[in-house]
# Entry
Amino acid sequence: MATKKRKSVAASLATATCSLLGNAATEPVQAQEEPGWDFNTALLYYDEGDGRVQDISFNVLANRTFVDDRSLSLTFVFDSLTGATPVGAVPFSGPQTLTRASGGSTYNVPANEIPLDDTFLDTRYALAVNWQQPLGRLYSLNAGLSSSFEYDYTHIGANVELSRDFNQRNTTVSLGLAIANDDMDPEGGAPIPFAPMLDVGDLSNKAGDESKDVVDVKIGVTQVINRNFLVQLNYSFSDSSGYLNDPYKILSLVDAVTGDPIPRTPAPGAEGPLHEYAFEHRPDSRTKHSLYGQGKYYMSGKVLDLSYRFMTDDWGIDSHTLDLHFRWPVGESSYFEPHLRFYTQSHADFYRVSLVDGVPLPTYASADYRLGEFDALTVGLKYGWKLASGNEMSARIEFYNQEGDAPRNQLIGNQLTREMYPDMDAIIAQFSYRFGK
Amino acid sequence: MQSLHNSVIASENDYLVRKSGAGRTSQFSRKSDYWQGLFHAMGCPCELLVETDDESMAERLLDLVSSEAWRVEDKFSRYLPDNIVAKINNSDGAEIEVDDETADLLDFATTLHQLSDGMFDSSSGVLREVWKFDGSDNVPSPEQITSILCRVGWQKLDWNRPCLRLRPGMQIDLGGLGKEYAVDRAASQVAEATDASCLVNFGGDLIAVGSRAKHAGWQVGIEALDEGTQRAERLIRLKQGGLATSGDARRFLQKDGVRYGHILNPVSGWPIESSARSITVAADTCTQAGMLATLAMLGGRAAEAFLDEQNVSYWCLR
Amino acid sequence: MRGLAKTLFLSQLLIFALAGCNSMGVEPWERDVLAKEEMQLTVDPVEAGLDDHIYFSKEASSGGRGFGGGGCGCN
# Structure
């Protein structure tokens, strides 16, 4: 009863005003906020500690609305990466020497440490543009272009998405398509899969630049459940083909009994690896399917945001992601937002701890820890506040922990006594400032 | 709220000062592609913008609008000693017969009282006797408020069109709807006289009529809440219809860190809690816009929720 | 393959179930809460993009909510 009454205030007022002014019919009002620019900027710091990857990222998203609900957005990202990353070789009780991916020099790894390669200093620029507009009363179109540039990697892509509303805009169905072409030109050239790591200056194990193509399709439904509850469900399909190897990742060749790396002697007068290593070899295609569900629930000012994603692909990887945000307002103009994320993935079919001497080479193999079996946990807290000017600031700090295991049935000899999988602990810190109009 | 195409003090070179009866003046000047008429009425700066090349037509419209504004002011202002409102407020319990226009406004005020569950109350003006919003900390005592509440309550009126009987001690104040009403009345006269695109603006309550030929509507700015900044907080493009603002940007009391806005709850006698600092609403007429803004303001914390339910465009500053 | 079939079946079921829910939802005047910024599916697109990028670089999964803004040579 109350809802019905509240609804008719405007209608009753219109009737009463009509009587008062004696107007037969008034023209409907046409008033719109003048379009303007809206900026969302963020500075991010990411640090894995222990000499591993550090990243500083600066982001700007500029959005301009035009009349009739059309808008243009421009995104600019600048990343500066430093630090070392596990290269895929196994640790063992003695020191190791490896040739850098560039083929230009060697680096040493102390005994009992997981080998890390820090050739990996990089600066990345990314630029994306997006256009959104309604098509008629019920349809909406979103189209965009994306690009990113690093000294050894270039990405360009295009995306388009069409949405339609149903049931008084309570249901929205959308269909999206994205295509991308990524070009890799690593220092020294992209390695030939399974080619051995060679002495400094010998680039016969490298080919030229390589590329890959990606096609993404997404079907989604958004549904309003009630005044306080909204859900979304997406199904995505992704197909990558081309050079899918990581040009900097290798595998150790190990003894079939001890599990220790096989020694190697560099050519006379040359510097080179002191054990045998081979570059990884992944399939040249990958098909992924994802199912993603998200719910947002409003509880007297607090908002619960829970999402779950299931991913499965033809590399044998299955993953589950559970992501929880809880916004807790403080006073009229600030909030806390704790964040919890659980992630788990199984290892790729071709994930190998190492290549075993004497055993026939598998079709594909990679020791990249990111294709291994691991669990990850993110715990974070964000604090946001509105300034007197209406602009917003926020700061968040998060801890990201990855812990995995090498498949026990792949471990040989001394490997069983060692920590074979590179666990990781990273800090994520971010400061944001939104302003505009 | 000001139209951005002008400043209240005309500073262009070619202006004419015109006199119109009783010492009231109006100024008339040419802007880029429209005429601007300025005058003072109902305690605020008023303007008329007319998009036309026809100077004499624009002057006639200015006369129409300013006359209507002064007419409404003279008839319904609570500051004048001998108009119908004064007669009613000095009636001391006697029955007063009112004309059609006054009766229409009383009916409207009654409808608003009902629609707002008693929160919009044109008899609540007497609360002004204990609440003086001068930026000081003179907050009245609960005893003062209780005693004055006896003299507040639109439901206590004996209103049988066309006869009104007010209880002794009670007062009516049509200030809450007078300005918007005047804007709409002036605008309908303008619309009858011409098709040209016009903007009638009485101190921030305004309406656009006709169709603006060259541009897509009038550019109207909502003033920022920070004192002294000329920069408009928000810009609205108005092609048609009314805009009205309800706000406490300038009138308030401050005591013990609590800001008391000047919108009073006529049932409790106290200022509305958690009221927005400024609410601007767009609606078909200035009256509807003004009433929705006031009703939203009276809703305190629920202002935005109320306006969302009414499905109108609004801008709320807290 | 088994995983794929399971995914497809589940998603088809849920999508059609939801799309067919004509009775669920709110009237236009009940959208006040849903209009709040904190109730949008992606509240902060910049932060979402940063997180997506971090997890894409460190894990084998990506996307779900939307399209990636682009690849990278991140290791």
About this structure: The CA atoms of residues 14 and 20 of chain C lie 10 Å apart. Residues 28-63 of chain C form one domain. Chain C has a mean pLDDT of 76. Helices of chain C lie at 2-19, 45-58.
